[in-house]
Amino acid sequence: MVKHPVTPLLNQFLNFSTISQWNSSIREAVNHGYAHKALTLFRQMKQNGVEPNNWTFPFLAKACTKVSNFKCSQIIHSHVMKSPFWSDVFVQTAMVDMYVKCNQLDDAYNLFVRMSMRDVASWNAILHGFAQSGFLDTVSHLLHDMRFSGIQPDSVTVMGLTRGVLHTKSLKLVKSLHSFAIQIGIDVDVLVANTWIAAYAKCGDLGLAEVVFNEIDIVTRTVVSWNSMIAGCANFANFFGAVNYYKCMLQEGFRPDLSTIVSLLSSCVQPEALFQGMLIHSHGIKLGCDLYICVVNTLVSMYSKCGDVDSARFLFDSMSDRTCVSWTVMISGYAEKGDMNEALTLFNAMEATGDIPDLVTMLSLISGCGQIGALELGKWIDNYSISNGLKDNLIICNAFIDMYAKCGCINDARELFYAIPVRSLVSWTTMIAGCALNGEFTEALNLFTQIVELGLKPNHITFLAALQACSHGGLLEKGWEYFGMMTRKYNISPGVDHYSCMVDLLGRRGKLKEALEFIHLMPIKPDAGIWGALLGACKVHRNVEIGEYVSHRLFELEPHVAVPYAEMANIYASKGRWDGVAAIRTMMKSNKVRKSPGQSLVQVKGKTHIFTVEHRDHPEGRLIYMMLDSLNLHLKKARLQLSSEADMNRSEATLFSS
DNA sequence: GTAGGGTTAG
């Protein structure tokens, strides 16, 4: 990735005579982000007959850490081993770090244990390696050995460990590292504080991040401190907070940089944030940030997430250079919109360009297929993933389980699920949700029991899936059981979706009053989803009184959404209350509500067919609607038969009771 | 002029 657009120094013809001149140019290249250039300079230097010294190798190793390239690390390794400086502590520490950054933890550790002398930097390099690979037990042993050998951890140790454990998203770990640092009395400089801000924000506690930020002296704060707070807000999709910090940093006289713009843009992820996103875009242009590929990628992502896919595409088309991320953000822009045809076209274009799709690219395609039920494309992507060795990845497998379940192929989903050697909680949760969606309620609940038996801890999403199974299956008692279990046994406070499932369950059973009481007792504010669930139940049970109350809550919350009006009108109509129907019509007119016709999508042989309520202009419409009419007829017959059987049973029952 | 350090895109 081009980080600095201009390279005056590096494009000159270089012909130095002294080693220190070569070293300076190599260091310059590394510091400017031109790792490959540094290696080329090294080769030129050797060609010119100048031998490297003990200063050369640490520079080279650092260059290699920046590109994280296995081959480069091997080349540097062989040069170091041939040189007289292979036992120098500076050189060796740089090599340990290089291996760590090139994902060669074994090589790093082998070198580390062979070092005859280690200083705090050497320990930090290896600790960081084990921390980011998730070997926390080894980290704690090494930390013990380090202190035992008389070397005290310093602020770099703490920063490395904090960053290393971030992938766990464990607030507990970050807090314990924080208190460890205070305990051993490390010097909390602005760099350490910045690390903590980012760490707390990433682990979900923006409040603590803010506490750390406020503790830094105003004059000590750097642009990174501000960026970290802005990025923290972005983690919570809080564009209001992000812009607030941005305004403050401008007032304090800071000059925003690339990270500031990227973080600000990534806080805009919903249509309401589009205007804000456009403003930040213009600030980015003024600052010259739009020359950087990562900023443009973020812009493309911002526009598509805010619903303006056309602007995203315009920017994407104008890019002279693209990375895998550029393609991925644009592909997922279309996939999230449900336009899988365009997503696939771009995917093919990406391959034709020679850019290689990665895990995220595939994930957005797979989830897009699930969203619109594009089964055939989904199967094609499945085959593609198998031939590209991506199917071994657990995250990809989970995505396919979800996709197949959403496409109604629960058997394919199940087959995949059982083929996974080691299933994660996400695999189980996805499968439960899939069963719930496909009407296999007993299996969903069985899977839940198995999770608990395996000793896995269900999370709030697992509970949501289980509650959805209960709600779709009308299993009220089981629903209460899970609802109680999540709060009491697992200490998970129910979110709005969990409450929504319970309301749905009560509503389906006709317990409308109970459902309403339940809503009134909720500790969180009911949203449109909850009221909508209850209104749906009022429609089924033809309850005008509660329906009126509920629909008015919905009219307040979302006055322009047509569905509640239509449902309430239906309730009135089912009771012959034509005055009510008329009143709803008037209300819709005065609130300027327009009912968009319902659409149904189906994919056959890769082609998407769209059906709307008003139009019957499909080329094979005659046949399709004839078939639908015949199905309807069958359903009506079946229903009649059922009710006559029920009547028979009832009369038999009365016969025997009398 | 050497090694281990802060923020940052999907």
List its traits.
elongated, 658 residues, mainly alpha, DNA-binding, 2% strand, single chain, Serine Threonine Protein Phosphatase 5, Tetratricopeptide repeat, two-stranded antiparallel sheet
Give the topology, please.
Layout: H1 19-31, H2 35-47, H3 56-67, H4 70-82, H5 89-101, H6 105-114, H7 120-132, H8 136-148, H9 155-164, H10 171-183, H11 190-202, H12 206-215, H13 223-235, H14 239-251, H15 258-266, H16 274-286, H17 293-305, H18 309-318, H19 324-337, H20 340-353, H21 359-372, H22 375-387, H23 394-406, H24 410-419, H25 425-437, H26 441-454, H27 460-473, H28 476-488, H29 496-508, H30 512-521, H31 528-540, H32 544-557, H33 562-574, H34 578-590, E1 599-604, E2 607-612, H35 621-657
Antiparallel strand pairs: 1-2
The chain binds one DNA strand of 10 nucleotides through α1, α3, α5, α7 and α9.
Pfam family, one: PPR
Protein name: Pentatricopeptide repeat-containing protein
Family: Belongs to the PPR family. PCMP-E subfamily.
Measured on Cα atoms, how large is the radius of gyration? 31 Å
According to DSSP, the number of beta strands is 2
Report the uncertain regions.
1-9, 650-658
Biggest sheet strand order reads 1-2
Q: What profile does the largest beta sheet have?
A: 2 strands, antiparallel
The proportion of residues in beta strands is under 5%
What integer is the average pLDDT?
90
Number of helical segments with 4 or more residues: 35
Oligomer state of the chains in this structure: single chain
Please tell me what the overall shape is. elongated
**CATH-scheme architecture of the domain at 1-152:** Alpha Horseshoe
Structural class call reads mainly alpha
CATH topology heading of the domain at 1-152: Serine Threonine Protein Phosphatase 5, Tetratricopeptide repeat
Helix content: over 70%
What is the CA-CA span between the terminal residues? Answer: 87 Å
CATH class (first level) name of the domain at 1-152: Mainly Alpha
**What is the name of the CATH superfamily of the domain at 1-152?**
Tetratricopeptide repeat domain
Keywords: Repeat
PPR repeats: 18-52, 119-153, 222-256, 323-357, 424-458
InterPro entries: E_motif, PPR_At4g14850-like_plant, PPR_rpt, TPR-like_helical_dom_sf
GO molecular function, one term: RNA binding
